[in-house]
Every structure is written in C-alpha cells, then in structure tokens.
Specification:
253 residues; alpha/beta; Rossmann fold; eight-stranded mixed beta sheet; 36% helix; globular
Length: 253
C-alpha cells in the first residue's frame, strides 16, 4: 500500500511491509525506476520480509508516486538523501539497514555520511568505483529522455534509459531534470569516512557501476560481491545478490 509524507515541502511516497517489531531495512531504488520495479517485482521485499525484517521502500523525488519536479536544482543527491532520512524520522525508525541500487547507492552513501547514527549496515548495489569516478556523461541520457520518441534516440545508452523509463511509466521531463543534477561524485576521503559495515555488489558484466573490489578497498569495513553473469540492469533481482545480502545481514542460509 502506498503512503506519503512531506519532506522539505516535497511529497514523497513509500511502502512499509513486514513485522513492525523486526529490524528495519530502507530500500532506495535507482534512476528511472521506482520502489515496485526495483524491489517488489524482483522479489526483494518478499525475501526480506520473510526473513523477519520490516521493509520500507521509498520512491525518490521525481520517481514513482512521489512528486514530480522539473527544476534540476530540486535533485541534488544530498537532498534525496535528506528525503530518505526524513522518511525514517517520519516512521520513528532510529536506525536501519540501508540498501541502495545504482543512484540509490549514491543516496545511501550520502545518508551514511550525513547521519551515521541512523545507518546500521549498508549495501551498495550496482555501484562500485563509479561512486568516485562517475558513471558516464549524463548528456546522452538527457537527450534520450527529451527526444520526441524512442525512435529518435540513436545513442545506445540514451536509448536504453529512454526505453526503461517508458517501461516504468516514468515522467520523462522529471527524469531529465534529475539526471542534470543528481550524479554527485564522492571523494576517496568521503568514502573512507563511511564506517558502517558495507557490502558492495556489482554485476560481473556491469559496465556502468565500476569495480566493487576497488571501492570496498577504500572503506574501513567493507566487502565486495561480484554477481556472476549479470549487467547493470539484470543484477538487481539476482539470487546471488539476494543471498549475499541476507548473509551480510546475518540471516542463516
């Protein structure tokens, strides 16, 4: 069931599943996705609630059922991290595990830096050294989103994101504004200050996220997981990814 709250004047949608007294997990989806596509349809919410967790999944601003904004100034990654933190406050959750995928991993990292007392364990899915080095130029994606139709998009990266955005029923104009703003890189020093135990999981064939081993090596309490035979789009719901996360959270195999 969809619920909403207001974060800094922006309406943010979320779902809240599982046992009310179980340890909480916050799920933060990737760009052009939403909480259902990223987490519910892939079986994540089912797997985590069956393992006894309370699972909160947010629709990032501009995505899913959350408010659509058309000014890039509304989408800096720290603002999106603040939305996630305010959601936990709204629900009275003082501390939670956080799983982010792709853009959601970047948001999770910023949340951990801004509010370390709130984050128990972290999972960065689909984002390794790309957190520091970047994940490619935004211009082809913006052009793909703003093209008159999918048929007009020639660039393969722009075409892939436009196609995915159409499949998820996204607001293309809002996504273009988000893409112009949200891809903040972190420095090596910032990454080194993330003290929460962290799992960095990236698909073996992922050409976007960057090395999970490289990022984990820069962090004081992190480990890497390579998801076999998966790329950036197909790693999200992979069973190896899920099993690795459950193990990381201490769930018996």
């Amino acid at each position: 069931m969809t619920a909403t709250f207001t974060s800094g004047g922006v309406r943010i949608a979320f779902s809240d599943d599982g046992a009310g007294d179980g340890a909480a997990i916050l799920l933060i989806h990737g760009f052009a996705s939403n909480r259902d596509v990223n987490w519910r349809y892939t079986g994540w919410i089912k797997a985590l609630t069956e393992a006894g967790f309370r699972v909160v999944a947010v629709d990032n601003r501009g995505h899913g059922d959350s408010e659509k904004l058309y000014d890039p100034a509304c989408y800096p990654s720290p603002l999106m991290a603040a939305d996630a933190g305010r959601l936990l406050d709204h629900l009275g959750i003082a501390r939670a595990h956080v799983i982010g995928y792709s853009m959601g991993a970047r948001i999770a990292a910023l949340l951990a830096l801004a509010r370390p007392q709130t984050v128990d364990r972290l999972v960065f899915g689909g984002l390794g050294m790309g957190l520091i080095e970047g994940v490619g130029a935004p211009a082809p994606i913006v052009a793909g989103l703003e093209a008159a139709s999918l048929a007009d998009v020639v660039d393969p990266v722009g075409r892939a994101f436009r196609q995915f955005a159409e499949q998820t029923g996204s607001d293309l104009r809002a996504l273009a504004a988000c893409m112009r703003s949200a891809r903040q890189r972190l420095s090596r020093e910032e990454v080194g200050r993330i003290a929460a135990p962290t799992l960095v999981a990236v698909g073996e064939k992922d050409t976007i996220g960057g090395s999970p081993e490289g990022l984990a090596a820069l962090m004081p309490n992190a480990e890497a997981l390579t998801i076999p035979r998966r790329d950036h789009m197909t790693a999200v719901g992979d069973k190896v990814f899920k099993a690795g996360v459950l193990r990381f959270f201490g769930v018996p195999a």
